[in-house]
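--- STAGE predict ---
source: upstream dedup step, 1 unique chain passed
mode: sequence only
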Amino acid sequence: MRRIPTITKNLLIINGLMFLALLVFQMRGIDLNDVLGLHFFMSKDFHLYQLVTYMFMHANFEHIFFNMFALWMFGCVVESVWGPKKFLFYYISCGVGAGIIQEIVQFVSFYFMATSQIPEAGFGDLWQIAQNSSAVLSQWTTVGASGAIYAILLAFGMIFPEERIFIFPLPIPIKAKWFVGVYAAIELFSALATTNDSVAHFAHLGGMLFGFLMIRYWRKHPGSDNYGRSNGQQFFDKLRKNWENRSHKDSRSVDNSRSSDNIEQNHKEKANQQEIDRILDKIRRSGYDSLTADEKRQLFENGNES
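--- STAGE serialize ---
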């Protein structure tokens, strides 16, 4: 647990504690999923806070196990790249976005259900029909972190599209971008082809949709998400830019002299550059916090020279 990034670790703990609370309260005849789960917004049981609380509730052990396993597997990597603040903002925002999409889909379902039974009903009549169908609509409850988890899965695929991962039961590794695409296609097919399977497929897709739009926005506006990067990560970004500029400048001003001093100096600079490149690659893979004290010192020394 000590190696798990801060936000991912705390999300795992909170979800686990909420599931234990669910079991304890169930023994006392209280269903926390009914209180904190996301109800249809036209139901009398709906509360605005449920757009956040629903993503920390789960239906059963299998539900929470697979969600938390995916959060641990992909969340650790994404948080290490983005930093804790940006990762938390992304996770919560996509979870809320998934809930909103689920509400919209439920409204469409309610509209068609109402108009099929009362053909002459219009939009103005829906609220009254909802009040008369309160007992049914109160059962439309969504729980689970799946929307936010699918958004994390999407983020991993967009950050490391060429990374190969093993997925049971496939015998060969598959690129992350294809893995995400296949998952999205399966969810879309399931959402359109199945009914009453107790799985909020559109919430999963909603989380991925909000995640995609957010990442696209950040990529088009690189400075808009600096709040989410640690000081070390921001220093790394500046250092990398300075190092690349210096390397480019040095490559244009190399002295063609064949003296032994110049050759030795060139060898030292090349070795130093290779070491810095290795450290930068390590940061890209595991984040700034994975560096040793000596590696951080080398970065800062080269940054000051730049």
